[in-house]
Structure formats: structure tokens, C-alpha cells
Design a protein that fits this description.
The chain is of the alpha/beta class and 451 residues long. It is built from 19 helices and 10 strands. Helix 12 packs across helix 17 and helix 18 packs across helix 19.
Length: 451
């Protein structure tokens, strides 16, 4: 089997000669710290060798649970936020039919995502949609008290029990949560739900290859064995003993940090395949939450090309030169569609007749990369042989290990997220949550002064 590959030549040329190679000692030291557990956040390194630790028996257990849900449900709602849903959604949308969500596709249940916002219209429309459906719920939360997810699960639990009865609802509600503590664990044990454990040493944004991601992906009908095999292959390919010249994760970390030091503060993740939109969304959380701290970090942004060339293309081509692009390129599409000929040729496109649509797309990709490099935008290219479980598994682990190395080179703790708590404290205080009286009083005074 092939591997995904990395081309940094159109990025390294923006740095001084040998600049990327000069990062090799720092990168090796960073990866050594990961392996030896001496880096900041070393209590959250469970993802590092997770692929190779996954057993056949574990995957069979996940698949058996998924099969029950697939048999019993027309729709399955994945309730989770951040890393508790983005990875699963990224894989499902990358591998699925672009319009499969409009119907039950080939016997597969519709996979829906909720618990990732507090939109009243969204939740009301969701409950209305489910009113005549046999649906199940995968509730993903370590604590069970994350506001967005807990609020959504309370609504869905009540509706599922009312529509199916408590005994039947118990069969189609699954908890993915902490092993011992938290509201979600207490609820699962009390109600008798099937449950899976989120490992203590795996943070949410690194949890795709735990039941957090694997169960929803299996419910959608995709091969989690192949997904894990792809991740295992990339774990071997990016191991600490692999030479720098062959280790694509080490090279990615090196060139990113080199560009950052040279003033490139924004990384735009670009794809030319609409199905990769949520891969970019997952990547944004992975790198943004890992590196954005201590007043440091590359800002992760994303664009879907060629769509966003008609909205962001001007800024990318001629705006402030503080950006670089990382392009995910799918080498072989899964389908074939030829461009037709037209007798009148009013649009002047007959020169494309007989060509595959993907050939047009590939030339748009190449032309854009050339234009952006000429315009002063460094370009990194990640080539993925095709969209399937095996290569998506590779891509997931590549980005995870690249992130761990890069964050260590940057000099931050890539595995905590203290800044995420700031908005929660204010929200709880404004909602008069018990225990936040002092914060509430301080905010009310602040608002009075501001007004």
C-alpha cells in the first residue's frame, strides 16, 4: 500500500538555504521528549502509540455496538463538542456520499451531530426532525457537564424515552465517557447504557482513534479496521528513529516553525475536494488548541477551493504576506465524470470536452499553487493517494504527531487548553449557576460601568 506524501519544496524556498534542515536537532529533541514523556503535558500522551495498542477484540466490541445501533435506528445523533465530534464528523464526511445525509444511504442510518452549539432553532429543528424517527444517541463527554452537550443530551434522552419507551431507549443510547467519575458515567451506570471509556491520558482533540471517533464512524458504515491500520502505518513511518529526511511529520513540524520564525503567522489549510471541509475543521482545533498559548502560535485557518478562490483568492494572492498554505491533494477520485460537448458552445468550454472533471480540478490546483507561490505565499503539499479509510487513518496520525512535535519545538504545552475555560466562567456567572456568585457580582459591576 502507498502512503501519503509531503512536498515542502515550495515552502522551504522562502527560507534561507538549509533553514529547514537546521531544525532537525530541535525536532528530534521534541520527538524524543514525547517518547520519553519528559515534555510539558506528558500526562496526555496516550494518543502517541494508540494506533499500535488497539486490539482486534476492542475493534470487534465497537463494531458489535455499532451494528446494534445500525439495525435499530434510522438516525443516530452524536452528541459532543470539539474533539468529541469533529474527528468523527471529519472522517464520515470525507468518506461518505456528499448528499447521503438527505436520506438513509444503502441501509445506513443518517448520522447527525448535535451538542456542539446552543442554537435554539437548531435544537428545536433537530427534535422536530426526529419526531417520527427511530433514533439513537451516542453521548460523548468525559464530564457529562459540558453545557452544550449536556443540554442536548437531556433533550434527546427525554425524547428517545418518550418515543421508544425506557427499555428500548436503553438499547440505543450509548455513553462514551470517563471510566469512573462524572455525570455522564453516573447516568450510564444508573440507566444501564452500553458505555465505552475515553482514556484519561488522551485529550479530546487527539481522540479520533478512541471510541469517541471509532463508534460513530462504524455506525456510519465505514471500516474502522482499515482506518486503524492506516494510522498504524503512519505511526511506524513517523517514529522517532526514522531519519529526518524520511519522516514527513518531522519535516512538517520543521518547516511550519521555520515559516513562523520568518513572520508567517497564519497557516491556511486548503483542499480541492469538498468532502474534506471537516478534515480542515478538525485540523483547526487540533493545531489551534495545541499551539495557541503563551502569546505564541500559528493561527490555523482554512479554505475550500476552488469555491473560496472566488471570495478569499484576492486576499491570498495580494494581501499581507503573513500567510502560508498547506494543500491536501487527493490524487485519485473515487468516481469518474467526463465533461460533455455542446453543439452551440455558448460557454466556450468545448475545449474541455471528453476530459475528466478531476483533470480540470487538478489543473486549477496546480495553477493556483503556482500563482500563490509567485505572489509570495509558501505552499506545503500533502498528497493523499485516494479517499478511503486507510489513507484517512494515515492523515489523522500524521497531523497528530506533527502537532505534538511542532508544539514542543514552539515551546508550549501542546496538550492543555487553559484559555478555553475563560468564556465558561463568564457564561456560568451570567446564568447564575450555583458557586459562581462572586464572579456574577463582578461581571454585573463591570457591565454597569461599561454601560
Amino acid at each position: 500500500m502507498k502512503r501519503i506524501s509531503l512536498d515542502i519544496t515550495k515552502a522551504a524556498c522562502f527560507l534561507s538555504e538549509g533553514a529547514v534542515k537546521a531544525y532537525e536537532p530541535k525536532v528530534k529533541e521534541a520527538q524524543k521528549a514525547l517518547e520519553e514523556g519528559t515534555c510539558p503535558g506528558n500526562d496526555f500522551l496516550g494518543w502517541l502509540h494508540l494506533p499500535s495498542s488497539i486490539t482486534k477484540e476492542f475493534l470487534e466490541e465497537v463494531q458489535q455496538t455499532a451494528d446494534i445501533l445500525r439495525k435499530e435506528c434510522e438516525a443516530i445523533v452524536v452528541a459532543g463538542i470539539g474533539g468529541s465530534y469533529l474527528g468523527a464528523r471529519a472522517v464520515i464526511e470525507a468518506l461518505g456520499n456528499s448528499f447521503g445525509w438527505l436520506r438513509q444511504d444503502k441501509g445506513n442510518p443518517v448520522i447527525l451531530f448535535a451538542g456542539n452549539n446552543i442554537g435554539e432553532d437548531y435544537l428545536s429543528e433537530l427534535t422536530e426532525y426526529l419526531r417520527d424517527k427511530r433514533f439513537g444517541v451516542i453521548n460523548i463527554s468525559k464530564s457529562g457537564t459540558t453545557t452544550e452537550t449536556a443540554l442536548t443530551f437531556r433533550l434527546l434522552k427525554k425524547q428517545c424515552e418518550e418515543q421508544r419507551g425506557k427499555d428500548e431507549a436503553r438499547r440505543v443510547i450509548v455513553a462514551v465517557t470517563d471510566a469512573r467519575k462524572g455525570a455522564a458515567r453516573t447516568c450510564a451506570d444508573k440507566e444501564g447504557y452500553k458505555s465505552f471509556v475515553i482514556p484519561d491520558n488522551v485529550g479530546g482533540r487527539f481522540s479520533v482513534l478512541t471510541p469517541v471517533g471509532l463508534l460513530p464512524i462504524a455506525c456510519a458504515g465505514f471500516d474502522i479496521v482499515k482506518l486503524v491500520e492506516g494510522a498504524q502505518e503512519m505511526e511506524r513511518a513517523c517514529a522517532a528513529d526514522v531519519p529526518f529526511e524520511e519522516n514527513i511529520a518531522a519535516q512538517y513540524a520543521a518547516v511550519r516553525n521555520g515559516l513562523y520564525a520568518a513572520g508567517k503567522k497564519i497557516e491556511i489549510m486548503v483542499n480541492y475536494q469538498p468532502k474534506l471541509h471537516f478534515i480542515s475543521e478538525w485540523w483547526k482545533q487540533l493545531y489551534g488548541e495545541s499551539e495557541g498559548k503563551d502569546l505564541k502560535g500559528i493561527f490555523p485557518a482554512s479554505c475550500d477551493f476552488t469555491t473560496d478562490l472566488h471570495s478569499m483568492g484576492q486576499w491570498i494572492q495580494e494581501g499581507e504576506r503573513t500567510i502560508f498554505e498547506t494543500v491536501i491533494s487527493i490524487e485519485k477520485p473515487n468516481r469518474e465524470l467526463l465533461f460533455p460537448s455542446d453543439e452551440e458552445n455558448l460557454d466556450g468550454l468545448n475545449f474541455l470536452a471528453g476530459k475528466r472533471v478531476d483533470e480540470v480540478n487538478k489543473m486549477a490546483e496546480l495553477g493556483t499553487r503556482l500563482a500563490h507561490v509567485d505572489g509570495g505565499v509558501p505552499n506545503i503539499r500533502i498528497a493523499v493517494p485516494e479517499l478511503n479509510e486507510y489513507y484517512i487513518g494515515q492523515l489523522i496520525y500524521f497531523f497528530e504527531i506533527g502537532c505534538g512535535i511542532s508544539g514542543n519545538v514552539l515551546g508550549v504545552n501542546p496538550f492543555n487548553q487553559p484559555g478555553v475555560e475563560a468564556y465558561k466562567k463568564n457564561m456560568f456567572a451570567l446564568l447564575n449557576k450555583p458557586g459562581y456568585e462572586a464572579e456574577s457580582k463582578a461581571i454585573q459591576e463591570r457591565l454597569r460601568i461599561d454601560n
